[in-house]
Design brief:
The protein is mostly beta strands and 203 residues long. The chain folds into 2 domains: 37 residues, no CATH class; 132 residues, Alpha-Beta Complex (Nucleoside Triphosphate Pyrophosphohydrolase), CATH 3.90.79.10. Helix content is 14%, strand content 37%. It has 3 helices and 11 strands; from the N terminus they run ββββββαβββααββ. The N and C termini lie far apart (49 Å).
């Protein structure tokens, strides 16, 4: 776990303290009460599918910057600390690929504990709305809709992107974790499963 030396709230030098069943860095100032639980980030990626000539294709972008420059992946990025996940993934698709799409549901996620921070990477299914793929000329070098067959001949399509596309193709839209509008507002969201076929649970 990365370590910091001083309290980000009051600048007091941190000490080690047993808290929550393990030793953690904490501020010795009793009025401050800061405890360092580690660095965390939330990433998101959008699976946007479109029918072209009877063939289902998924939106991919080619990375234009290190790391992994030149590889192909789902459009995505980090959710800002003050941004809802659904807003973040729609923004990333628009910024990286010039495509408008609307969040439908979550088809899966990856939890990773290697590197400088613990990361949750949420793969979302979005409904295509409008726009033709185009790179932003900075983060992305290219963008387009590609079928699974076309991906086979492309160099460097990332494995987690293939995984997310496959899960989106093999499940019904709306069958993943969807936003419960009755339990959400503009500050927080509730995600839950919706059975697309009620016969599965009605006897």
């Amino acid at each position: 776990m990365p370590r910091i030396s001083y309290c980000p709230r009051c600048a007091t030098e941190l000490v080690m303290r047993h808290d929550g069943g393990r030793d953690r860095q904490a501020c010795p100032d009793g009025e401050c009460g800061f405890v360092f639980f580690g660095d965390f980030s939330i990433g998101c990626a959008g699976v946007v599918l479109r029918e072209d000539g009877g063939v289902t294709r998924a939106l991919l972008i080619q990375r234009g910057q290190p790391p992994y420059a030149g590889t192909w992946q789902l459009p995505g990025g980090y959710a800002e600390h003050d941004e809802l996940l659904t807003t973040a993934v729609e923004r990333e698709v628009r910024e990286e690929a010039a495509v408008e799409a609307r969040f439908r549901d979550v088809v899966g996620f990856r939890h990773m504990i290697v590197g400088p921070s613990t990361n949750i990477y949420v793969v979302c299914r979005l409904d295509y709305v409008d726009g033709e793929p185009a790179s932003d000329g900075d983060e992305t070098a290219a963008a387009g809709f590609y079928s699974f067959d076309e991906m086979e001949s492309m160099q460097g399509v990332q494995g987690i992107s293939r995984w997310g596309i496959r899960h989106a193709l093999e499940s019904h839209p709306g069958s993943g974790l969807s936003v419960d509008d009755n339990g959400s507002d503009n500050r927080w969201q509730m995600f839950g499963l919706t059975d697309v076929d009620p016969r599965h649970w009605r006897g």
